[in-house]
Design a protein that fits this description.
Blueprint: H1 2-13, H2 15-29, H3 39-58, H4 73-93, H5 96-99, H6 102-105, H7 116-140, H8 152-176, H9 180-193, H10 209-214, H11 216-228, H12 236-260, H13 264-267
Helix pairs in contact: 2-7, 3-4, 3-7, 4-7, 4-8, 4-9, 4-11, 7-8, 8-11, 8-12
Length: 268
């Protein structure tokens, strides 16, 4: 039981520290801005305005209907992009969590295990703000909102666990291999263009669909659109399998972090 609690013990024992670090992470992004934290809501609306102009107004793009429903292409695209933004933030920030906080490493009493938590919780905060923006725009544009939107946290939870696992793994690797920081930026872009964030899998050539299916974003994006846009129940069986894999990555990443942390101070 002790080993099962491993990845979550740090946040349980240091809840107040995680809260303060998360608050600092969120507020630090908008420090010095005149509108401050309001940018967490303003930015999604600006993104939606740009997507509406580019894809809806200029390109006239549309998404295949589901169950006879024709959704707003901009809102469908927006759901995919905000989920990608969540995972991309975890990927690109994780390699610097330890190497960018050498003062924490040299403090023996500081629990380094907590570092991925503020990063993931900050990314989750912005994901929820993006969802609020989606809800407002959906109402304004006349898009129907079903009760299934309440299942959004359950659908996204496995992706959050995956973000934690990759956070621990990449933060440890980033100490010993500084090139990881460069690779994750490219990887985040690759995950966007090889997922269903921008295009439905039905338009992808049959021989290349496996690339989109193995992308960890595609399944969560599709299930999120089901509950948020189409008013459908998620694929519970697939979601359960995804959750098992995500927890596997989480424990593996945490194990790698614990195994390598003794050498952090020597390297840094």
């Amino acid at each position: 039981m002790s080993s099962m609690k491993g990845p979550f013990r740090a946040v349980i024992q240091n809840g107040s520290l995680v809260r303060e670090l998360t608050k600092r992470e969120i507020l630090g992004r908008y420090r010095g801005a005149n509108f401050g934290l309001l940018w967490a809501l303003i930015s999604p609306f600006l993104m939606l305005a740009i997507y509406s102009l580019a894809f809806g107004g200029i390109l006239g793009s549309h998404w295949p209907s589901v169950d006879g429903k024709q959704g707003n292409f901009t809102l469908i695209l927006f759901i995919g992009l905000i989920l990608h933004a969540f995972l991309a933030e975890c990927l690109t920030q994780a390699p610097r969590l330890v190497s960018g906080n050498t003062s924490y490493v040299k403090k023996v009493v500081f629990p380094l295990d907590v570092l991925p938590w503020p990063m993931v919780l900050s990314a989750l905060f912005h994901l929820l703000m993006n969802l609020v923006a989606y809800m407002v725009l959906a109402v304004v544009s006349g898009q129907e909102i079903d009760w299934t939107v309440l299942l959004f946290p359950l659908v996204v939870l496995p992706l959050v666990v995956l973000g934690l696992g990759t956070g621990w793994a990449l933060s440890a690797l980033g100490v010993y291999f500084r090139d990881v920081n460069q690779i994750t930026g490219v990887l985040a872009t690759a995950l966007l263009f090889t997922s269903t964030a921008i295009v439905p899998i039905s338009v992808i050539p049959e021989g290349m669909r496996w690339i989109y299916r193995v992308n960890p974003l595609s399944f969560i994006i599709d299930q999120t659109r089901n509950v948020v846009i189409w008013g459908r129940m998620p694929d519970w069986e697939g979601l359960g399998l995804y959750a098992l894999l995500a927890f596997g990555v989480c424990y593996a990443g945490y194990g790698l972090f614990r195994a390598t942390r003794r050498g952090f101070a020597d390297v840094l």
